[in-house]
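EI: anyone free to look at a 149-residue chain?
SC: sure, send it
EI:
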Amino acid sequence: MTEKDTEKIENTEEIENDSEVESIDSYDSQDPNNQYYNPEHGFRKEPIEEVRTNVKDMEQCYLDTQKEFEEVEELVAKYKSLKAKCNKMADYWAYRGPWTVYMDRMQEEFPDEKYKIHEDRNLFDLSDKFDQLTRELLRESALEVAKDV
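SC: here you go
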């Protein structure tokens, strides 16, 4: 144990033993029999309409959060499906085996049939685009987690 570690422990003990430092858990307890119960606490003196407004605001926030959680869960399923499809097209295109042959044969045999997939000659870009999206989502998630730390 280093000298700094010992110093930190000693400082912590001083705070724990300081009678003027009140526990966060017990400060302004809801129990009127508790020594930290304060009938004059600011939140107990707010006008009831302000309290009602705050409660309604928190209720709406809660409902919105529940709805957004459901939407995100659906997005996760779509994300997985999209990844599988992008991988399938990238694998198919990357090897250029049957894909170019199929494309040429379809154009020869059925010249009137047009497919959007024939216009995009580089399906591999879709997989790359997906990977960029994934990196962006991971970066944003990491930044949000870092804010909370």
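EI: The mean pLDDT is 77.
SC: 👍
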